[in-house]
Amino acid sequence: MRFRSTALAAVAALALSAAIPATDAAAAESARPGDLVSSAPSAFHPLPGQPTQTKAWKIHYRSTTADGAPNTVSGTVIVPQDGRTGPRPLITYAVGTVGMGDSCAPSNNLPHGTAMEANLIQQLTLRGWAVVVTDYEGLGTPGVHTYTVGPSAGRAMLDAARAATRLPEAGLPADTPIGIMGYSQGGQASSWAAELQGSYAPELKVKGTATGGVPADLLKVADFNNGSFGSGLIFMAAAGQDAAFPELKLDSYLNPVGKLLVAGMKENCVAIDAIAGSFKRISDLTTRNPLDQPDWQARLNQSKLGRTAPAAPVYQYHALGDELIPYGVGRALRSDWCAKGANLEFDTIVIGEHVSGVITQSLAVGNWLADRFAGRATRANC
What we know:
By secondary structure, the chain is of the alpha/beta class.
């Protein structure tokens, strides 16, 4: 499993490019979430030049912001070329934190073997599964990435699955069995996709969601990381929330050092952002704490998970020693989902921490999803 040394610390993120082709106003009005805006041949390489026996396409597709407005998101569809002629499962996959600059988008790195989770994605394609990887809102497309805005990320995942089944070259019918998967930032996105699927995309044949290291309560995660080596992620998250909700006026809270740091974060990837922001307290970079304000608290609570039971089964996992997303936050999400009747299997990673959790659990995650695609019974443990 290949993770560059600086990226290992950086992927320990909360969680953890092409311009949009022009469309006329009438087309934009009539577009459905998940409709393709454009597609172009791409490639998938876990390492530079490493063959994978896959075909890939970069796509732009319609989705929906946290406030319900239409937007366009980019992503990558990957289909194994293994001679299979019948239907195959599709995984809609959300990466952990990669950064906020457009160059960090998975679709810009998967073709070159420089995407940090490409080895995890390859484990899925080796099973014969197709994969679609969203870039999230504003990552690789115009605007600032709405980092940690859960409803936007969840819709981007569901609409990526829709778009993959609407890409003729992929050969994925509308009734393709679908798995939802993500860890860290991707855990937030996949958990939101699971909660939203029943109301937002009920036609998708979702068989299960595997989600880990989930930052289910952003206010608790921010408090936990304030002043620690993960503190840079607080400011990335603040910038992401401000991008989605400009009325929050983040800039009005930042002192000159804070303004400089946040401006840099919007242009760089996580290895730089996490290190530049580490071991800083919110009070070091602000004139007053925005997280004390009712409007900020309300917006952050819009991304809180656990209010809706996912319609399909869930496998949730969290490291007991997670140093970025407190184990208690993961357990609270489990309790909330169980109380609402979710079909949930929760797994505690006894040995390990945040980054290692996504690696050591990858085989179990794949096996759990394989069981769902095979129609086997779940082992819920609420």
